[in-house]
Amino acid sequence: MSVPTSVSDLRQFLTLLEDRGELHRVTAEVDPKLEIAAITDRVCKSAAGGQALLFERVRGYRVAVATNLFGSTQRAAWAVGATRADEAAERLATGLAGACGENAEERLRSLLQRPEFAPRLQPRGICHSVVMDHPDLSRLPALHCWPGDGGRYLTLPQVFTRHPDGGIANCGMYRVLLSGPRQASIHWRNGSDAARHCQAWHMRNLPMPVSIALGGDPAMIFAAAFPLPPDISETALAALLRRHPIDLAPSQHSDLPVPAHAEYVIEGLVWPGETAMEGPFGNHTGFYQPSAYMPRLRVISISHRPEPVFSTTVVGPPPMENCHLGKVAERLILRLLRIEHPDIVDIHMPVEGIFHGATLISVRPGTCGRSLLQALWRSGPLHGARLLVVTIDGDQRDPATFFWRALNRMDPGRDLLVQDGRLGIDATIDPAGLKVLRPDEAITALVQRRWAEYGFDV
Ligand SMILES: Cc1cc2nc3c(=O)[nH]c(=O)nc-3n(C[C@H](O)[C@H](O)[C@H](O)COP(=O)(O)O)c2cc1C
Questions:
Q1: Residue 234 CA: which ligand 1 atom is closest?
Q2: Residue 441 domain-assigned?
């Protein structure tokens, strides 16, 4: 089924999903504290990830809450304007093939700097239609997802920041704990682009402006979570995938751009030295991430579209919505990896490994697995992977067969690599002196021909 390129905001995406039978409206009243998360968790774990959910009556609020929007690989592909995840990846691969640069990062950078992917700047966004007189985060129907969580969270935000010297704005997905009417704490990891920007502002003893958008073009939501190298624009990636520029509008209190069609925009400042407790947070590992001090956001303004829809996700034991976003990302990452490592045939990131925590890689015969593992850990999107397994002719789509092949081919004394707490298995070398077992081709064909004759269903 084709995807209209005209989809450019959350509402149009919801309409698309409804037209395709992929949206379930919950009209019964539900509680944003634990109940919506429990329903979403159960739906996420049903066949093929279940439908997207729109909770129309949320206790204590007049705002509808959408969850599980990207909760199947099909919907995650639609979200980036593609019929299949591989179609999105091919779009990227075609662009990369025509871009210049020595390595994947350089090619990506030059590709996404092309004027055709630059945003369309609107003087004012529809996201600013309604400005709260007294900004109050408690008016957002943010979910409390797990019993031990530290509070109510924004779990699907696009967080915009910029380096104090200027340059392109970064858009990252970092969870936000709402800790007071005008106070929140943002969980950006050390090493994330926002953390880097924040450090630069604070070195100059200046508060950093932050704008947080909810909703807008679903391709932007995907791009916010995609591991792009620093200073490469998420907006341009979304435009490449979507095949049209993304509409941005200025924030009201800073020069940060935000998606013009976002449902909500929260603006504020992070002052040097100011932190607030964040967590615990029930995570995709199946454990609560303990609380820690994170940068505190002092909220200056909250604006929204008329009758906003609040989009959010539930993070927890897989399979969950983020696994499907991860699957589309995996297809894009494969195309990036192949630029420097053309021997990679395919990759698979099992959901149990939580995105790129574990990656199964199949390569062409003759590839030196050990060199490949070391190169992948040095730089690129898999440099943080805790487990990499590389083998030849492995069907990585079927992890059971893949592991069977890999674990029986490798020699633990020779083929295990441990580096900085990461484990690599090089299963590219056939065991010395042993012949590979293969069925007789003629007999296999004969059995196939005579299958019905043996009394089996064909
Ligand atoms: C649902 C979801 C929640 C996420 N939450 C966080 C988070 O709280 N902190 C974080 O550092 N990364 C989080 N990530 C991963 C980042 O979005 C991802 O690493 C992204 O590339 C960060 O952007 P950056 O490279 O511009 O820093 C999350 C991803 C998803 C899909």
A1: 26
A2: no
